[in-house]
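Practice problem: predict the structure.
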Amino acid sequence: MQDDDEILEAYELELAGEPVPVRRSNRGFWIVIGTIGLACVVLVGEIFANKPLGDQIGTAQHSLRVAQGAAQGIRTTEGTFAAADAGGLGAVERSLTFRAADLPSTGLEDVSVAASDTGWAAAVQARPGACFYLRIDGSDQTYYGAGTDCTGTAALTASQPSW
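Answer:
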């Protein structure tokens, strides 16, 4: 058994030594870093998952612009949009296929066209159930729209100043 002097000496040695550092947990740091990392992975995944949609929209709008240019060329030559129907456009612009006003567009380079003496309209299917419209009235004003019906007849309802 230790006597009082030995106990006090041991106690003094214990107190005189280096203080033992308190180890703090870095668990909170790793939770935050893990959450940010997971959010980044999900965000990048969503970007790549939706990239084809942006490409489809751009291609559909480009097809409408090409058809619009061909229709305006026919109007300049003929004096009316009536000749810028599916047959007339098909003879002028070979990079796209054209359909009559009551037949729906079936793809990005397939344009449904409605043509008359006073106006012209076209629809292109960007994906099933999503179509873009372009309409030119008798005063050369261009209107845009979107809908689910992909016919040239439906494109006659386009009334917006932009897509």
